[in-house]
């Protein structure tokens, strides 16, 4: 009996140590707000240093960003020298807003990446789908985490703000494409989905075996004002709910913390969306049975 107890304690110690040694994975969904000249004190020039400093200060490993123009992309590359980026504009090449993926170049090896469009013709550049007001894209990448020794896929998107059918169909298309591209590998999906947690597109994503980090954590592991879109409103008036998300799929990734960074300093905002930060831990294979 004593020997069995000793063996159990040793196995538990090995398991916990191995899990901790795999390291944390900290990711974010970050709608940075395009560089509109009509944003007053919150123009991009007044926010870009604050925004990129937050990425470094919170030690983010991967960021799925939205509304990124080519000029902003170049600014972020310059201000984030430890990061590489993948993605293209929704009009093709350097044209239109990007949904890029920024990742730490010292930690991750990029194995593959591409972009597809949220439309009836997803491989056609700049194609607009269903009742969408604008072309919308998904940028994805496959990484090897050199610290954890694991491979995974990271998808990042921005759903249309007007098209109700477009949002539902976009969720269905992402589910199908994700399965075709990633198969049974670990997946993280970030984005501005322009949809509430009680909406049909949200439920379509859950039906495709994606899990919402917020919903899978106890209250003590969540820090959030309860909404992600602030619309530059210092009084936080009107309807407030989550429209930016970090989803995940797979048994090796376990969420540990969820944080909506309410970046506001009086009338100054980090963006018109608050970034969503999720901390994951890698679980060893023997934990995943």
UniProtKB/TrEMBL annotation:
One of its GO terms (molecular function) is endonuclease activity. CDD domains: EEP-1. InterPro entries: CCR4/nocturin_mRNA_transcr, Endo/exonu/phosph_ase_sf, Endo/exonuclease/phosphatase. PANTHER family: CARBON CATABOLITE REPRESSOR PROTEIN 4, ENDONUCLEASE_EXONUCLEASE_PHOSPHATASE DOMAIN-CONTAINING PROTEIN. This is Endonuclease/exonuclease/phosphatase family protein. It comes from Salinimicrobium profundisediminis. Residues 1-18 form the signal peptide. Residues 29-273 form the Endonuclease/exonuclease/phosphatase domain. It comes from the Bacteria. Keywords: Endonuclease, Hydrolase, Nuclease, Signal.
